[in-house]
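Fold sample X.
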Amino acid sequence: QVQLVESGGGLVQPGGSLRLSCVASESILSRSPMAWYRQVPGKEREFVAALGLGSHSLYADSVKGRCTISRDNTEATVALQMNSLKPEDTAVYYCNAGGYFRTLNTYNPGTTWGQGTQVTVSS
């Protein structure tokens, strides 16, 4: 059973933009904070952004000011708008549900993950 499905990845030039989308069940989005993580081969999965049940959001320093996480409960989606993309943003991006804010500035992921969508930033 697929609970989270990401889309929107692809090849983009440095400085370009992408909008990643994650489709989830309405029950998941209504009850759970949502987050985006990314991973490159040989590296640990890295936190990118999280959005609480309210309006509280958190971003990794590496993407702060360039990315925006948002939720649409009606559409049952969570999105990550990525601007001014850099080659170091290249990774597989994963949607995550079921996590929580350990502190206002620290996020612990849940155990529900999407299959990932590849983002490649290259000239």
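Fold sample Y, listed below.
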Amino acid sequence: QVQLVESGGGLVQPGGSLRLSCAASGFIVSNYAMNWYRRIPGKERELVATITRTGGTNYADAVKGRFTISRDNAKNTMDLQMNSLKPEDTAVYYCNTYITILTTRRPYWGQGTQVTVSS
């Protein structure tokens, strides 16, 4: 059973830092590209960061230079280190991957973790 569970969200002051973690089960994270998305209330989910199978990374312009996506293969987790947080980073953050089971390629999502940046 493929499962993704995010943790690490919370309330943080502007300029602060937070580290999110996505615990994966049912697959090995090093074998798949994985993503962090976020959803601001009233808006569609937006892609925040991607890590490829080979470790390459990509970031949305809004978070570039502040966020770092990584994998911990020993723990089978994917992480998002968020620094210099801004109020506009407030959102529910989701980890995501795409996996083909049988002939169907489909997205898998975690339940999300709330990040609130406020003074």
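Sample Y note: The mean pLDDT is 96.
Also: The radius of gyration is 14 Å.
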